[in-house]
Design brief:
The complex is a heterodimer of chains A (about 110) and B (about 110). With about 110 residues, chain A is mainly beta. Chain A contains no helices and 12 strands. In chain B, about 0% of the residues lie in helices and about 55% in strands. The chains are: A mainly beta (about 110), B mainly beta (about 110).
Chain lengths: ~110, ~110
C-alpha cells in the first residue's frame, strides 16, 4: 500500500460550489498532517495544517479522521483562484517526506 | 529572507553529460529534500538528509548522488544524464515543530536532457 493516496480527481466545479477531497495515509503512527497547494509550474506552498480537532481558515476546513486514517479538505464558495493541485505529504520514518500525485481542482466560471 | 534557493533555474543537458543542481537554505533547517516532478505527476523523493553528513535514498535515487557537508547546502549530482531525467527538480527544507514538519520549497530547476 502506498504511504499516501489521494482521491483520483480531477475535480471540475463551478464557481461558488463546495468541494471536498480526501487523502488516505498508511502509517497509523503519523503525528502531523498538512495540505499543500501547488499552482501550475510553481513550487508547492503550505495551505494549512490539519489538527486532530479539525481547523478552519476562511473558506477552507481541514479535518483528520484517525480511525479511518485520512485527512480531508473542504473548500466552500469556490473561487477561480482556487484552481490548483492540492497535496498532502506523508511523514514517514526518519522524517522521510513523500507526496501523493495530488488532487487537481479546476474551478470554472 | 532568501529561504530555499535553487540554481540553475533552467538547464539543457546532452545525454551523458554531468551536472550539479545547487540548493541552499538560510533557515538553519536540519532536514533537506530533493524531489523530481514529471509533467502531470506528483513529487517523487530522490534523496533526503536529516542533517549535515547524513543522507538517505528516497523513492527514485538511481542516476543521482547527493552530499551534505554543511547544514545550508544540499547539492544534487547527475552523473550521466539520460532523457528520463528530464523533469522539474524541487529542493525543500524543513524543521520539526510541535505540529510536525513545515516544508519550504525552492522555486524549482527545469532540466531537459536531449
Amino acid at each position: 500500500r502506498k504511504e499516501v493516496e489521494q482521491d483520483p480527481g480531477p475535480f471540475n466545479v463551478p464557481e461558488g460550489a463546495t468541494v471536498a477531497f480526501n487523502c488516505t495515509y498508511s502509517n497509523s503512527a503519523s503525528q502531523s498532517f498538512f495540505w499543500y497547494r501547488q499552482d501550475c509550474r510553481k513550487e508547492p506552498k503550505l495551505l494549512m495544517s490539519v489538527y486532530s480537532s479539525g481547523n478552519e481558515d476562511g473558506r477552507f476546513t481541514a479535518q483528520l479522521n484517525r480511525a479511518s486514517q485520512y485527512i480531508s479538505l473542504l473548500i466552500r464558495d469556490s473561487k477561480l483562484s482556487d484552481s490548483a493541485t492540492y497535496l498532502c505529504p506523508h511523514t514517514g520514518a526518519n522524517s522521510k517526506l513523500t507526496f501523493g500525485k495530488g488532487i487537481t481542482l479546476s474551478v470554472r466560471p | 529572507n532568501a529561504g530555499v534557493t535553487q540554481t540553475p533555474k533552467f538547464r539543457i543537458l546532452k545525454i551523458g553529460q554531468s551536472m550539479t543542481l545547487q540548493c541552499a537554505q538560510d533557515m538553519n533547517h536540519n532536514y533537506m529534500y530533493w524531489y523530481r516532478q514529471d509533467p502531470g505527476m506528483g513529487l517523487k523523493l530522490i534523496y533526503y538528509s536529516v542533517g549535515a553528513g547524513i543522507t538517505d535514498k528516497g523513492e527514485v535515487p538511481n542516476g543521482y548522488n547527493v552530499s551534505r557537508s554543511t547544514t545550508e547546502d544540499f547539492p544534487l549530482r547527475l552523473e550521466l544524464a539520460a532523457p528520463s531525467q528530464t523533469s522539474v527538480y524541487f529542493c525543500a527544507s524543513s524543521y520539526p515543530n510541535p505540529s510536525g514538519n513545515t516544508i519550504y520549497f525552492g522555486e524549482g530547476s527545469w532540466l531537459t536532457v536531449v
